[in-house]
């Protein structure tokens, strides 16, 4: 999951070196914290949050195979 979010985020931003994904794993859920450069926040979130929602949808679909709940948080 971590690598999936990283690949998607790096494809969207201008500064791919500043993309960092922190994975916090629990028993039934995984929290992925996505950090990008302040200039790239808009590109990752998108208009009205559409890109962020799309990222969450793709990750959620991939997580159903592992039967875990995945939460993607975009941090500054």
TrEMBL record:
A GO biological process held by the record: cell wall organization
From the record, give the transmembrane residue ranges.
none
Q: Which Gene3D superfamilies match?
A: 3.30.300.20
**Where is it chiefly localized?**
cytoplasm
MF terms from GO for this chain are:
RNA binding
Instruction: List keywords of the entry alphabetically.
Output: Cell shape, Cell wall biogenesis/degradation, Chaperone, Cytoplasm, RNA-binding
- Return the protein name: RNA-binding protein KhpA
